[in-house]
Write a structure and sequence with these properties.
By secondary structure, this protein is an all-alpha fold. Helices cover about 75% and strands about 0% of the residues. Belongs to the complex I subunit 2 family.
Length: about 325
Amino acid sequence: MPSHLLFISTLLFGMLMAVSSSSWFTAWMGLELNLLSFIPLISSETNQFSSEASLKYFLTQALASAMILLASSAMVAEIMFSSYLLSTALLIKMGAAPFHMWFPMVAEGLGWLQFIILSTIQKIAPMALISYTIDNSYWLLIMVISTSAMVGALGGINQLMLRKLMSYSSIGHTAWMLAALLISESLWMIYFGIYCITSSTIALFFYYKQAYHVGHLISSAFHTTPQSCIMFMSLLSLGGLPPFTGFLPKWITIQELATSSYSFMAFFLILGTLINLYYYLRLTLSSFMLSSSMLKWQFVQESSVSAMTMIMMFLNIIGLMISPIVYMVY
């Protein structure tokens, strides 16, 4: 739709404006443009929770934006702890724990395409801006990384709704991205790029299957062996299991954390990843081991199934091809 293209273009423009700004005021303007462009995309969804999700998202982001203005004014006046207030506002915007409460609730009211934007593009500007405050809010970030790793792991164990499960997975990966950002911005870009490929692949798979519950992965017309294998590979890559693509950035991050005297932080990250792998395997094994009869009204055209399979294979192949190149360059 033309309106969707307009809102997506202004959303990307607001993100680029915030990232490339030279003052906190213009960064705030970019974040606000990004916010106001994403709300119509949420409201365009036809499910019954879209209006509730857009309201929750607006209230949370408006609170964080007000905190950014307050913190930037306090920084000009050289008031103590203003950098901590600014970092807290940016952490609220990206949905990092313990400021994550809004993220699963908003994700529940989104479609899968909107969820891809929320978990990838919407994290770019806050993370790029928080890189300017690392030196002044070091201990806050240490606490947030450890908390996000454990919340993202434990929160998804008992989840049966796929969007909430993927939102807790995104919170766990936010901890890894913040840890990579503590080391270097180039490592953060490597991790974020590979995370975008793997998470988008899984979200597209769920979108084409119209799967919103764990049970939908079992009783589905898309239950074929190639697609089950692709979902298996994508989920294990997102979990960071070798030799899949997602293992590479986690391997580099663990090496850098160990050499930078952050071993205690690496412990929480690895422990959270192991728990994440548990519920990723629960999704894939149920799809492999359990099957259901295909009903007549579940018929899906073979062309759409083949197109979805080709898209997912293409994204996985891209990840596998760039992994050794990225490692050699880094």
